[in-house]
Amino acid sequence: MAAVSFMIPQMQNALKQPERWNSEWENTIRNMERRFTPSALVNSLALTFAAQPLRRDASLREHQTILSNLCRTQAILTATAGTCFAGANLEERWMKASPDLRGKHILIGLSSACSIARNLHDARVYCGRELTLSHLRSDGRTVLELLKAVLLPEVAMPEEPKLLPHPAWDAFAAAQARGSPNDSEKYALASILTLRTKLICHVIHATLNSFVGVELPTVAVAKYNKKNNPGEPFLGREFGKSVVEGMLGVAGAKAQAKENKAAWKERQRGRTEHCSYGGCSKANDGSAKFSRCKTCWDNMQREILYCSAECQKADWKPQHKSICGKPLTFEAVSKPPPPIPPPSKPAPQIGPAVGNYERSPSLVYQIGWLNLNPKLDYVVRGGAEETNLDFPDPEAQALFRRCREKAMTTGDKQSIAIMAHFICWMTLDKPRFHLAAIVEQLKKEYVFDELPRAIHEMQQRQNKDPFRRPPLLAPMSPQNWVNFCKGMNVNRQVVLEL
Ligand SMILES: [Zn+2]
Ligand SMILES: [Zn+2]
């Protein structure tokens, strides 16, 4: 009975009986791994997609929604991870935790993420062994590496999501690009890569939240009209019935289908319709009826809902006109829709990383704060508390910011040392700052284990300066320096244990 391997566990059991549900999944994945290659998965999805025009249209629309939701998910995850890495010492705590403890939180992450929506649940098929409990829990690095692979370079909505790399899928994608794939094949691959990345992001997010003891993330899911629901992904739908009948008999299969339908209705209850105009996106709280675009509904059974005539009008020219009543193409949905209104971007304080400098999650978090608050010079954590540093002297601030820019965009060790020494030196003798905690923080942000020695060397340089200027302020004129350090003990020194 080869078909048994297609059995997909029941989604509603993810929360009800997580252990059982998960071991069913691990069985399915083991069985599937032997017979399913990326090309078999893509081809099956492409075939069902091509066969039904209305479902194809709904799937394309859904794909674009998933792309923009994934962008949002990754921005939120990047912010969360930054907080956890910087504040909650996540990395050390996770590595020190036992496999059992890690496994407990990973299972919570898996079952919570897979309960968000049907398509995410079934996307475990596309993750294979990568998302099995035994694989994730055994070595702490596995989850941390997955997490780092999906983090964005800055805490902001990206224009496109960052897809999780994977040797087999990436090789398949390269082969597809060399051929001349049709729309169905392109859609099938893009949809699989997006969904698997999205599922993994949600699993990791929920796992982290569970581990550091904060509330699990909640994800709003749009309500679909039954008629235009793109439906269950191919495995559950196309092969599901005969497989389940083979396993449970006709009566058993019927009973299971009934259970699944009830669970689907239950999920629908928590969902709401949203206004299709990107500048509004209002959720329908039930107080008024949203109206749908008639042409789209009549021609394509495509449900485009608007909360008001104003929103419909506002959406027409920039977005809807080009697709109204016409079948969608893969090209039209292969990127998330541009945000409306376009973000008025203030120039960020800190530019993007240069060359192949890879920022640590803690540094991304620091930069996120600095870009949000242009007045800040640095966010320093002395113990648990965060304190904002800003340097009132304009010349000192300009010198600091120039050095900070180089440190944060290139990871230049010299700049990091000069800046770190200055931060330490400026906060000496102030009771709310703890030197050791600041050095630890900077070491982590720049992944710079030799930082204490580098700071020590900067202190030696300061001691040799005839005016006792810290290296950061070496370009300052002696006259300005005298003003700068009025009331300051310029002979104080940063002393670290080496
Ligand atoms: Zn609206
Ligand atoms: Zn329309």
Automatic annotation (TrEMBL):
Pfam families: zf-MYND
Keywords: Metal-binding, Zinc, Zinc-finger
Protein's name according to its UniProt entry: MYND-type domain-containing protein
InterPro entries assigned to the protein according to its UniProt record, in alphabetical order: Znf_MYND (IPR002893)
Keyword Plastid: no
GO molecular function, one term: zinc ion binding
Signal peptide: none
Coiled coil ranges: none
Source species, domain of life: Eukaryota
Domain MYND-type per the UniProt entry, residue ranges: 280-324
PROSITE patterns registered for this protein in UniProt: ZF_MYND_2
